[in-house]
């Protein structure tokens, strides 16, 4: 007998502690075929020649488009509350990225 206080078609989503901690990524690599979009999230550290994919998400084209719309909508809400997000090309980054200054 189903629980009476649960809404019909309600989806209960659980998240493990490990997944809830998240993974930092500062690069996304997107590839696609006719059947799917693959998004690899990478954490690239300055001065290191190699980086690892931290997470890979595979979406159908329909879900990729819904994801794009959701991201666009949420960026709009964020900017309405916090101001415009500057694109990386608009920000002057120091060449040392906060690390030690190189010497010859």
Provide structural commentary:
- The structure is a single chain.
- By secondary structure, the chain is an alpha+beta fold.
- It contains two helices and three strands.
- Strands 1-2-3 form a three-stranded antiparallel beta sheet.
- The chain is extended and about 55 Å long.
- The model has no long low-confidence stretch (mean pLDDT 86).
Produce the secondary structure layout.
Blueprint lengths: L16 H5 L5 E6 L4 E6 L10 E7 L1 H22 L22
Antiparallel strand pairs: 1-2, 2-3
Q: What's the gist of this structure?
A:
The chain is an alpha+beta fold.
Note the main attributes of this structure:
26% helix, 104 residues, 18% strand, three-stranded antiparallel β-sheet, Transcriptional Co-activator pc4, Chain A, 3 strands, alpha+beta, 2 helices
Q: Largest beta sheet: what is the strand line-up? A: 1-2-3
Tally the helices: what do you get?
Answer: 2
Compute the CA-based radius of gyration: 20 Å
Q: Work out the strand percent.
A: 15-25%
> Helix/strand/pairing class, anyone?
alpha+beta
Per CATH, the architecture of the domain at 22-90 is: Roll
CATH topology of the domain at 22-90, by name, is Transcriptional Co-activator pc4, Chain A
Give a quick account of the main beta sheet: strands, pairing sense, barrel closure: 3 strands, antiparallel
| Shape, per Cα inertia axes | extended
Question: On the 0-100 scale, what is the average pLDDT?
Answer: 86
- The CATH class of the domain at 22-90 is Mainly Beta
Task: Give the termini distance in whole angstroms.
Answer: 75 Å
Q: Runs with pLDDT <50, length 5+? A: none
Portion of residues in helices?
Answer: 25-40%
Number of extended strands: 3
What is the string of helix and strand elements? HEEEH
């Amino acid at each position: 007998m189903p629980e009476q206080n649960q809404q019909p078609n309600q989806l209960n989503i659980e998240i493990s502690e490990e997944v809830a901690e998240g993974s930092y990524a500062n690069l996304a690599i997107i590839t696609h075929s006719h059947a799917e979009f693959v998004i690899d999230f990478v954490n690239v550290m300055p001065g290191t020649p190699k980086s690892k994919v931290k997470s890979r998400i595979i979406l159908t084209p329909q879900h990729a488009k819904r994801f794009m719309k959701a991201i666009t909508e949420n960026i709009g809400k964020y900017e309405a509350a916090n101001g415009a997000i500057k694109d990386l090309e608009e920000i002057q980054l120091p060449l040392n990225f906060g690390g030690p200054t190189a010497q010859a």
